[in-house]
Structures are given as C-alpha cells and as structure tokens.
C-alpha cells in the first residue's frame, strides 16, 4: 500500500505540464480568459479539478483526452505545449475557427491515437513528422485550408481513418496501407496523377473533386505518357551544330586537365616513395594495419586501413544490390577521410565520407578464422534475406588476412545512445520502447527463419548494434558478422549462483539461442534503463535478486513509472526477458515465439489506449 501511494505521488502531472497546458489554452482562446470558469489555471489540477474538456486516466493522475469541440476558438494550436502531456491519447478541436499551421512538434505527442482537427481554418503544409506518430489510429483534417502535398505516413501501420476532404492539397496521393484503412477521403482538393490501388475498399466518392486525378475507382482512365516529339527545322540543326562544337571544346579541355593531373600524380608518387610510405598518425585515411602493425611495431595510425597485401588491395570491393553505390571502388575508401567511431572485440568501426558527400560506415573485422570463399558465401547469403529493420550490406572486401563490410551511415545514432544519453532530444517512452522491441524481435525471427539452414545467427546482439534510421525506426546492424565460439559468454545466463554455463556449443541451433539470450538482455536494458556490463550478467543477477525479494516494481526504469506506463505490460515483458536468458539454451524460446508474445503485448497496449480514448 505504501508503495502504491509513493508511485501515485511521484507520477502526478508536474507543474511544468500544467504551465504548458495553460499556455496551450491561452494561445487557443486569446482574450477569453477560460481560467475563470473552465479551470485551466495554475491554482488547480487538470484531473482532480476537472478542467473543461479534459479526461484523465482511472487513477486521476495523467491527462489522457482533450476534447474542445464547437467552442468558437480563434487562436492557434500550440502543439509543443499540449504535447507536454506525455500520456495524451486524444486531441479534438473540431468545428472551431482555429487558424495557423500544424507544427512539427505534434510528433512529441508520441502516445496520440486520435487527432481531430476538422472544421477549422488551418493552413499551410502538413508536417512530415506525422509519420512518427506510430500509435495514431484516427486522423481527421477535413474542411480546412491545408495545402501542399500529403506527407507519406505509410509507416503509421495501425492507421484506420484518414479524412482530408475539402482542403487545398496538391500533388499525388502517397502510399497508404489501404488494406488496414476503414475510412479514407481526399475529395475536393487539387490532387493529381494516378490513384494508387485501393484494393476495392473505397469508391469514387473518396476521390471526386480532384480534376487531375485519374484511374480506378474514378471513371476517367489515365492517359498514356506523351511521346517525345522530334525536333525539326533549321533552327534545331543549328542548335545541334553549336552543341557539337561546345562538346568538342569541352573534351579538349578535359584532356588537357587529365594530362596535368597525371603529371602531378606521378610527381606525388615519387615523393611518397622517398618517404618510405610513412603515414602520419593524425591523418584521417582508411588504411589496414592488421599485419603492418605486427611487422613494424604498430606505427601505422589506427585511423587508417590500406590493404595489408600490396597497399592497393589484391581483392576488389564487391558492391551488392545497391544501385546508388554502383561504381564504388576500394580505392574510394582508401582516399576518403575517415574517423574511428568504435572498437570492440570483433573489430573496429570507421565513419567514412566519400568525395561526393555520401557518408558510409566501414566495419573492419579482425581475428576471424574464416576463408575467403566462406566469407563471400556468408555475406551473399545474408544479402538474400532482406528485412526493412535489418541494415543491408552495401559492399564488402575480403583478402586472405582481413575483411571489410560497408554500411550506410545512420545519423540518428544507436539504441544505446538513445536510451542512456537522451540523444537528439528524442523522447523514449514506454510506447516507443515497446514498439522498438516488437520490431527488433520480428526482424530477428525473420532472419533466423531465412538463415536457419545456413547456421547464420547475428552473433553479437546488443543495443549499440541497433541503429536508428531517419524515421527513428530500429535497424539491426552487423548481422552475421560474428561467430559463436565453443564457450561463448552469450550462453551464460542468470541463475541462483549466476555461474558460467560451460556447455559446449556444438550445433547450429545454439548460435540462434545465443541471439535469444542477447535479446533477453536487451529487453532488461530497455525495462530497467540500466547499463549492460559484464555481458549482461550483472544486470541479470540484479533483476533476479530483486524478483526473489518481491521487489519486482523496483527494477523498472523510473521514467517509465513516472509516465504511468502499464505495470502489467512491463511485467509481461520482463517475464519473456527472463525466459530468454535461461541458463539452459534448450529451455529458451525460439525467436519467433518471442516475437509473437511481444507483439501480443503491444497489441494489448494499443487496445487499452483505444478503449481509454
């Protein structure tokens, strides 16, 4: 009972949230002074004193719904302020006279499931940040003055309603998950182009009033693309003649420039030869030092990698199915500025910026006893099993003594930095953590099923190997670039004495069970907010100890408790984490079983939010 009282006191909406909500109302209803009759002032509480339009959770601690329809508001929507209420699930301002733009800060309402803004005077473009509202179910924007293109919100996989009729949207209709939508209407706008396949779910009334639209379900078919007209007449001939002269002149200039460049290169090579190919330790070039360090006492910079065999690479860089990087060569990596951004027991990680401004990440693998042929087969097999939440390998290089693997750089960093460093100011609440967990488990289950026969598991699953793309979705990196050893520490697991399990690893299935163990530690890291040390054993020991003392609630991250996250769902996720780190690999569930359970927890959470709304 004392614990419940403590949680209630520490979980109430803060003074800062109340100040933000008051500011939201002041901007929404300028000059009306709603604090007199409606609450909405600093001397009262939005839940206990029942501010007008506000509904709270069952414990009367957190604002869940704000419904302020038909109140003749003439101000603007201050999304940054209203989204300070982190548990807000429903925001409705329908049929007022609210004007201005919908700002990017609306994405701060990370638990928002329903957004109703129809019947107002909103204008301007919709923010692209709407795609980050992963819990959104209903989005109603009709009867406003919104313009510009409709942003791509296909990543909002649970969207059920999108109503945007009677606005001024233009451009094409973006991709939607029409198979999931229950309501869809973009009629009476300025949209153009071909209507995407709506899978027979919506009729012409959803698209009428857009003169530029064509295709089913509208009666007018889309015209074929116009043929390219041939240019005729003397003026065209003169134009081509002058163009030919210009091209000849350009070719001559290029030939002269090329001759000068080659001359300078030969001079530079002679100077390098005189210096004995010494590298300055402050240079940011990628040059391999695997065997050079052993031969010369480690004089080569850790920031450089040149081929250990000849200085130019006896094997060429192999670019996989990535048309953007076709033509990328091993020499491009050698010449490009590089920065060492990580070093671990499996190798080093470099951030490389090509001369065309593209940024890549190069993983240099060391101490891996694998043949060239086996490495190539492994990389190509991984490339064949693709999942949107697994980082694709762009290219690789393999010699007799080293391996390099190239990925695209992800500027939003890793899950580790998001969880422990509040990177980029992104909120990492319970809903976001549960969503990330579900995506990671599903991606790993997919990869395990596709690569089971090849025995290729991830081998080194941890939060620093989970990167975040531009949409803040998780991307698993370095899949399959580690091989489990005979007594790999991944098979250690928390038990009563928390000692090492030295069961030999002698079959393929144990490699996949090691990934399950790694996911279990990752779940504990997300639930507790604590750093993983000693391969997760300290964290597992501490969690087990707390559970034995019946202090289960004490293991959870205090920020999750403060936001009012469901203790029931957190305990459910904790239970699956403990199954994953069972000391016996055979007793651990498969990754598919883990994925199914986590997704059921996520679905239950979403249904709970919808019912409360």
TrEMBL record:
The chain crosses the membrane at residues 239-261. Residues 335-598 form the Protein kinase domain. The keyword Amino-acid biosynthesis does not apply. It comes from the Eukaryota. GO terms for molecular function: ATP binding; kinase activity. One of its GO terms (cellular component) is membrane. ATP binds at residue 363. This is Inactive receptor kinase. It comes from Forsythia ovata.
